Amino acid sequence: MDTIDLLIIGAGPAGLSTAMHLLQQDPSWAGRMLLLEKAKHPRPKLCGGGVTRLGLRYLRDLGFLMPLPIPQARVDDVRLQYGSRLIHARGQPQFVIFHRPELDAYLAEQARQRGAVICEDEPALSFDVDADGVTVTTSRKVYRSRVVVAADGSKGIARQVLSRGERRRRVARLLEALCAAPESAPHFVERYALMDFTQTKEGLQGYCWDFPARLSPEAVFGMSSPQAHWSLGPGSAGSSQQAHLDGIPAFNRGVYDARLEARRQRAHLPQLLDKFFIANGGKMSDVVLEGHPIHWFSPLNRFAWPRLLLVGDSAGVDSLFGEGIAPALGYGQVAAQTIQRAFTTGDYSFTDYRRRLLNSTVGRYLLQRWSVAEVCYRMGGQRWFMHLVWTIGDALAHLWPELPELYK
Ligand SMILES: Cc1cc2nc3c(=O)[nH]c(=O)nc-3n(C[C@H](O)[C@H](O)[C@H](O)COP(=O)(O)OP(=O)(O)OC[C@H]3O[C@@H](n4cnc5c(N)ncnc54)[C@H](O)[C@@H]3O)c2cc1C
């Protein structure tokens, strides 16, 4: 049996952020922790890939140079739609969209360069917590660790084991498809992304999105699905550094259903997405739809057990928009501070994690989003309420100064 101070299960944004924050605090963590990853980067990951300013700031504070040197689509204008009404939320940028497999592979490579050891193709199969530590069995070995961080996402083993006693499951449903886009599409020219809440009229507790995206030629060539009817153009098929960085334009479209009000009838997501595709000049029959759940944040969630901390999707992400990348990076920062303190004091009960989390930037962000989602999605079926929200939102968007350039 291998013994270690810290095992992080999952090398997505939450696990990698925990590792990089620990290494930033104390480089000796390089030899004292392991990340277990069931796949191998770049691994497939269903996601809109939108990283908001909060997430970009976490990366900048970790020492990343901005903009990141991977393909990306910048969004300066977020258009929030309800029927014929539009709110423009502007910022320089409001968020940046990455192809998730490429973003995560880049973060993993950066974590490695800083000293993190990532054991890929090594899924954790089970874990057993006792007073002195945690025994983790993987496909290759048995580890004994003083502390474990569960960063293995919404469908990981941590959620499977820990959700058994939960009275209420807080899980959103998402469907997504990626399709080719022309370089001249207004999304790229005007740098906008659309989030359309019109379908709350039909029972959706969420929205449909239409995001511009950019993928490296390598990522497009690696796709085997029929949705890859990409027009690569004469200059883009090469693997030159510039072609890699410019990326190939695509649309990332999908639907998010928070299911906050679990007693209400489920919205028919493929039908709603089909309507959205038609309204935005596309056909759903041309793409491959994929779905994935996400576990959302509520202050009632449990975030820690003695010797075990949850981060990212396994702890719970934003219930309003389903935003999880920036929160995952933020969870990593709080978890790293909590772990560092536990190893200094010898107290591994982690009773302070909840307080630290809820008082942190990411905790306050998630609490705000959760409060708005609780009201808006419960009332979202009422048209007068949505019109009121859009009237107030539009007034605020006009009064609010445009968010300044982040990359200066
Ligand atoms: C369709 C869709 C669209 C989304 N769009 C956005 C968006 O635009 N912006 C945004 O901010 N968020 C978005 N999200 C949410 C976002 O993808 C997640 O919140 C985010 O990935 C959470 O990061 P994480 O590190 O907690 O989990 P993950 O990214 O899921 O990483 C978990 C890692 O653990 C590994 N793993 C799992 N089980 C094991 C195991 N047993 N042993 C070892 N390793 C394991 C997995 O391979 C994976 O690498 C979207 C989600 C979906 C489903």
SSE inventory with pairings:
Elements: E1 2-9, H1 13-25, E2 33-36, E3 50-52, H2 53-61, E4 72-82, E5 85-98, H3 100-113, E6 118-119, E7 124-130, E8 133-138, E9 142-150, H4 157-162, E10 171-180, H5 186-189, E11 192-196, E12 206-215, H6 217-221, H7 233-236, H8 241-246, E13 248-257, H9 269-279, E14 290-295, E15 304-305, E16 308-310, H10 325-345, H11 353-359, H12 361-379, H13 383-399
Written description of the protein model:
The chain is of the alpha/beta class and 408 residues long. It contains 13 helices and 16 strands. The protein has helices at 13-25, 53-61, 100-113, 157-162, 186-189, 217-221, 233-236, 241-246, 269-279, 325-345, 353-359, 361-379, 383-399; strands at 2-9, 33-36, 50-52, 72-82, 85-98, 118-119, 124-130, 133-138, 142-150, 171-180, 192-196, 206-215, 248-257, 290-295, 304-305, 308-310. The strands form 2 sheets. Strands 1, 2, 6, 7, 8, 9, 15 and 16 form an 8-stranded mixed sheet that branches. Helix 1 (13-25) packs parallel to helix 3, helix 2 (53-61) crosses helix 10 and helix 11 (353-359) packs across helix 12 (361-379). The model is unreliable at 233-238 (pLDDT under 50). Bound molecules: flavin-adenine dinucleotide. Residues 9-15, 36-39, 43, 45-50, 123-124, 151-153, 156-157, 174, 176, 254, 292, 294, 312-313, 317, 322-326, 328 line the site of flavin-adenine dinucleotide.
